[in-house]
Amino acid sequence: MVSNTRKYDVIVVGGGHAGCEAALASARMGLCTLMLAIDLDKVACMPCSPSIGGTAKGHLVREVDAMGGEMGKASDASAIQFKTLNTKKGPAVHSTRTQNDKNIYHRTMKAVIEAQEHLYLKQGMVERLVVEGGAVKGVVDQTGFGYEGEAVVIAAGTFLSGLVHVGTSCIQAGRAGEFASNGLAASMRELGLEMGRMKTGTPPRVHRDTIDYSQLEVHQADEVPCFFSFSSTHAPLPQLPSFIGHTTAATRNVVMENLARSPLYCGTIKGVSARYCPSFEDKAVKFPDRVSHQVILEPEGIDTREMYIGGLGTSLPVDLQIPFVRSIPGFEAAEIIRPGYAIEYDYVNPVQLRPSLETRKVAGLFLAGQINGTSGYEEAAAQGLWAGVNAALKVMGRAPFVLDRSQGYMGVMVDDLVTRGTLEPYRIFTSRAEYRLMMREDNADFRLTEIAHELGLVSDDVARQVRERKAAIDREMGRIRRVVVKPSPEMNAYLAERDSAPLKTGVPLDQILKRAKIGYEVVREVAPAEPPVDARVARQVEIEVKYEGYIDRQLSEIEKFKHLEKIRIPEDFQFEAVHGLSNELRAKLIAVRPVSLGQASRVDGITPSAISVLMIHLKKREGR
C-alpha cells in the first residue's frame, strides 16, 4: 500500500450529512481529521426532499446545534420557508421545518468544512479498510492509495452496493448519476459484520412553469420564523410558498394497472422499504380504500425551476411516470425534469455497535447515518456528530460520550438502534421518547451545551450565553412567584376577555399564568420586568410555569429510570452463564451486550423477572 505521508487521528468516509458533522466534531475537538468524499461537488447534498426538520427531526437538528454542530446554521442560512409544526399541541411536540435552497445549503456547509482548522477535505472512493490485530489502522482508496488513521467513521449513506431502479432499468449507483461503493461493502463483510439490504426512493422533479397553480392550495411561510440555530438572528433569503395538491383515482390506476413493471412489486427490489415514507406504489397497494393522497410541491431553490413533489416517490418506468404525474389536478401539462427512482443499498445491523457507535468487531471503527439502518438527513447528522465525538475521544483515550433517553432525542435514537436494531429504515418520532416534555426543541441548549463545552465543541462565549439565559429565566420565575395580584375591576375585565375566572382574593402572578388562554403577556400587563426580558426568556418562563406539575412528575420518573441505568454490566459479563434465562433471552443479550441494566430492560422480549435474575447475578459477581 502506498501511504499518505500524513497520519490522521480520525478518518471520515463520506461527505453527506453524517460525514460532515462527524468530521467537524472531530476537528473542533482538536484532532487531525480527514474527510474523504466520492465527489466534492456533492458534499452535504440533498438528494431527496429539499428540507430539514419536521416532527421530532427538528428536535434532532436543535440538539445537533446545541452540541456545536452545523446543520442548524446551514439550514437557517439556506431556508426559503420556515414552518413550525404541531403548534395546536403542547410545546413538547412543536417541531421546526424548513424548505431549503439545496445548492446554497451545500455551498454553505462545504465552505465551513474547508475553513475548519485541523480538517482536511479530499476526494476519493474508499475501497478497503485496513485492520490489524482487531483494530482499524486506515483506509485504501480505489487507486490503491492509503491513508493512515487511528479511528475511522464510515458514513456511506446509500452508496454501499447501491442499485438505482427505474422500471426494469437497474444501475449501480450510490445516487442517480454517482458511483456505487462496492469494494467498501465487500471489505466490511470480510470483517464479519452482519449486513442487510434496505430500499428508499425519491419522487420526480418537474418544471415549475408547467404547473397550473390555480388548482393547488398555497402554503406560505410563517410570518415570524423559528430558527434551528440558537445563534441565528434573521432569515437571509426570500421566503417562498409551497403548494398542496391531491392525487386521483387515475393516479392510482396507473400504478395498479402496471404493477408488473414496478421493480418494487415485480420482484426486482429485495431491500426493505421505509414504512413511514412509502413510495406511491406502496400507498396504492397497501391502502386500497383510499382514492386520494396529498402531494406537496416545493421549490428546490431560488435560482432553479425544478420543483420537488413530496408524497409521490416512485420507481415506475419513465414512460409511465409521465401519465402518472399528469393525472394530478394542476399537473396536466407537467414536464418531468428528473424521473423518480428507487435505490437499494447495504446497511449494518446496528445491534453490532456499542452505544458509542463503535463496532464490536473492530476497535476504532465507527458507523453513522443510513449505514446503521436509519432514514433522513437529521438522523444522519445526529449520528455523525455522535460518532465523530466518540472517534475523537477514542483516540484521546477518554471515556465515550453517550446520552441516555432522558437527555435527548439523540440518546433515544442511538439506544433504539444499538439495543433493538432495525429491520426497516428507522425514523425518529416524538412518540419514541418517554420523557419528551423534558426534551423540547426550545430547551436543547440548556440540556446539551454545557456537555458540548466540556467536550470542546462550543466556545466559552457560547456556554456563557447559555448560562446567562438560564439565570435570567430563574430570576424571572422567582420574581413572578413573589408578585401578588389583587382583585380589581381592570384585572377581572382582562381575565373576562380571555374567558378566565375573576379574582376573588390575592393570587401569585405565576398562578394566573398557569391558566388556559393566558400567556406571558399577563406579566407584561400586570408587573412588567425592568429591564424587560427577551422573548426567549419569556417563552421559557411561560412553558415552565404552565407545565410545572407535569415536569415535576416526569423528573420523578427520570430518577427511577436512571437507577437502572446506573447499574452497569461489565463488558466481560458472561450472559451464557446466567441461570434462569431462556435460551432465546440469553441469545438476545449476547447479541446486544447491554452496558447497563437499564439497556438490558429495553432489549426486545426481556421480562421483569429476567431483569431480576440479571440483578442477582450482578450482585453475586460484585460480591466475589
The separation of the N and C termini measures 49 Å
% residues in beta strands: 15-25%
The CATH architecture of the largest domain comes to 3-Layer(bba) Sandwich
Uncertain regions: pLDDT < 50 for 5+ in a row? none
Can you put this structure into words, describing what you see?
The model has no long low-confidence stretch (mean pLDDT 95). Helices cover 36% and strands 19% of the residues. 48% of the residues are buried. It contains 20 helices and 22 strands. It folds into 4 domains: 2-199 and 345-455, FAD/NAD(P)-binding domain (3-Layer(bba) Sandwich); 205-342, Elongation Factor Tu (Ef-tu), domain 3, CATH 2.40.30; 460-551, Arc Repressor Mutant, subunit A; 567-623, Orthogonal Bundle (DNA polymerase, domain 1), CATH 1.10.150. The strands form 5 sheets. Strands 1, 2, 6, 7, 8, 9 and 20 form a 7-stranded mixed sheet that branches. The chain has a 6-stranded antiparallel sheet with strand order 14-15-16-17-13-18, with helices on one face. A 4-stranded antiparallel sheet has the order 11-10-19-12, with no helix packed on it. The protein has 624 residues and is of the alpha+beta class.
Q: Topology of this structure?
A:
Elements: E1 2-13, H1 17-28, E2 33-37, E3 51-53, H2 57-66, H3 71-78, E4 79-85, E5 95-100, H4 102-115, E6 119-123, E7 126-132, E8 135-141, E9 145-154, E10 163-166, E11 169-172, H5 182-190, E12 195-202, E13 205-207, E14 217-219, E15 242-246, H6 249-256, H7 280-286, E16 294-299, E17 306-310, H8 318-326, E18 336-338, E19 341-348, E20 365-367, H9 377-396, H10 409-420, H11 444-455, H12 460-482, E21 484-485, H13 489-497, E22 507-508, H14 509-513, H15 521-526, H16 535-546, H17 548-566, H18 583-592, H19 597-601, H20 608-623
Parallel strand pairs: 1-2, 1-9, 2-6, 9-20
Antiparallel strand pairs: 3-5, 4-5, 7-8, 8-9, 10-11, 10-19, 12-19, 13-17, 13-18, 14-15, 15-16, 16-17, 21-22
